[in-house]
Write a structure and sequence with these properties.
Layout (H helix, E strand, L loop, with lengths): L6 H14 L4 H29 L6 H26 L8 H12 L8 H15 L6 H22 L5 E6 L5 E21 L29 E17 L4 H25 L4 H28 L11 E6 L4 H5 L6 E5 L2 E2 L3 H8 L6 E6 L6 E6 L10 E3 L16 H14 L1
Antiparallel strand pairs: 1-2, 2-3, 4-5, 4-9, 5-6, 5-7, 7-8
């Protein structure tokens, strides 16, 4: 029977290093810079929401604070996984990942992901011998970061979804939500200390570390230190055929399966160059499969946010607004106002315009699947009712999801000229 990992001894050390990192001015300054960049992104999202409702929801600070909280939890979980498998910072190739990821982003925005950069670096090392990295270590780093990302998407990927009119396949404009989240990730990683001594060290199991280092000597005799670093993770997706919560749950499931498979391949890659090559290829092909599956489930299922046969379907409802307080939510269908049927969104807004008294609304609840009645109090002067219907068939304002980067667009134009 193999020895168990000494969690009760290791976790307090990780927590100590994790919390102590915020006492380091350099670490804290980097973390705050990442927080500011994240706040800028949430401010941009709030501007989009404001363009629909006429006012923002005051979510910038709460969203940034929530992102920090979830990021701390994700970073702590990732730190424990990294220490358990023995992933070391010095051999993970982290210094190469960002430059390669940014270069790939110029081809396509979705390539700004460590899965593609890690796979490219691993393939380059295996075929060209450059750069000098530990392939299992860099693949494992990609796997753990995506494992943390899948946890964060499951926990908070649907929060703060931004409504949008989206031009999909066939040129049809439908309602939907853009899911965009950003998290600061403080992580405690291992570093091999050479030429040092340690007192009161922890005896690790014989099977540890799962990922062997390239440092000469018996891994059991090496000295490891815990070092804190700051990373950032982002998530972008679209929900048109499912609610934001359903879509983020599916994405988390796919991404979790991908990261777990990739981690297993990273460990096996130590024993065979063929398996190392398979891990490198799966790093980006597996991620492409996750993206393909996510898009496929949106295409196969009919769009959710389209005009109904009768009434007006709501794409979104302003949180805290007049309609929200009355109980209306995204996906509900308004059937009548004060007992009179509503033919379309233009008629809806025409009826509400200039109304300064409570309005009785008959609607079909998307959640309970039953007809309900509510009373909407008139909004405070200067505010609107907080209702956003789904787009109509003649909608000329929409978001066209283009992910091709400047280099990718240049390559497309160049290839088009060659073919012609």
């Amino acid at each position: 029977m193999k020895e168990l990992f000494p969690f009760l001894l290791i976790i307090p050390l990780i927590l100590q290093a994790f919390l102590g990192a915020f006492m380091d001015p350099q670490f804290l300054s980097i973390f705050l810079v990442v927080m500011v960049l994240i706040a800028v992104q949430y401010r941009r999202m709030e501007k989009v929401r404001e363009s629909f409702f006429g006012r923002g929801g005051g979510r910038i600070f709460p969203s940034t604070l929530a992102a920090a909280g979830f990021g701390l939890l994700g970073g702590l979980a990732g730190s424990i996984v990294m220490v358990v498998i023995g992933l070391t910072l010095s051999e993970s190739g982290l210094i190469y990942l960002w430059p390669v990821a940014i270069l790939l982003m110029l081809i396509n925005m979705r390539f700004l992901c460590f899965s593609y950069a890690g796979g490219v670096l691993a393939l380059s090392n295996l075929t060209l011998g450059f750069p000098d990295i530990n392939v299992p270590q860099i693949i494992a780093l990609v796997a753990v970061l995506h494992m943390v990302e899948s946890f964060l998407i499951l926990a908070s990927g649907h929060l703060g979804a931004v409504p949008a009119y989206i031009k999909g396949h066939g040129g049809k404009v439908t309602g939907g939500f853009t899911l965009q989240k950003f998290w600061p990730i403080p992580i405690v990683v291992l570093a091999v200390v050479t030429g040092g001594t340690v007192e009161n060290g922890i005896n690790m199991p014989e099977w540890w570390p799962l990922l062997k280092t390239g440092v000469p000597g018996n891994p059991q005799d090496l000295i490891y230190a815990l070092l804190p670093v700051v990373a950032g993770l982002g998530y972008g997706d679209i929900a048109t055929a499912r609610s934001p919560q359903e879509k983020s749950r599916l994405t988390a499931l796919f991404l979790g399966a991908y990261s777990l498979t990739l981690l297993v391949l990273a460990v096996l890659a130590q024993h065979s160059e063929t398996l190392a090559l398979a891990a490198a290829v799966f790093s980006f092909l597996g991620h492409e499969a996750v993206i393909f599956a996510g898009r496929r489930i949106e295409i196969v299922k009919p769009p959710l946010y389209v005009p109904p046969e009768k009434g007006v379907r709501l794409l979104d409802v302003q949180p805290g607004g007049a309609a929200w307080q009355a109980g209306l939510r995204s996906g509900d269908v308004i059937l009548a106002l004060n007992g009179e049927t509503v033919a379309g969104r233009d008629a809806l807004f025409q009826r509400l315009k200039g109304t300064f008294y409570p309005v009785t609304v008959d609607y079909f609840s998307h959640t309970s699947k039953e007809n309900l009645r509510a009373t909407i109090r008139p909004p405070v002067q200067g505010l609107n009712w907080g209702l956003l219907p789904v787009p109509g068939e003649d909608e000329d304002q929409y978001v066209e999801m283009m992910t091709t980067g400047p280099l990718g667009r240049w390559l497309q134009q160049w290839w088009g000229k060659i073919r012609s």
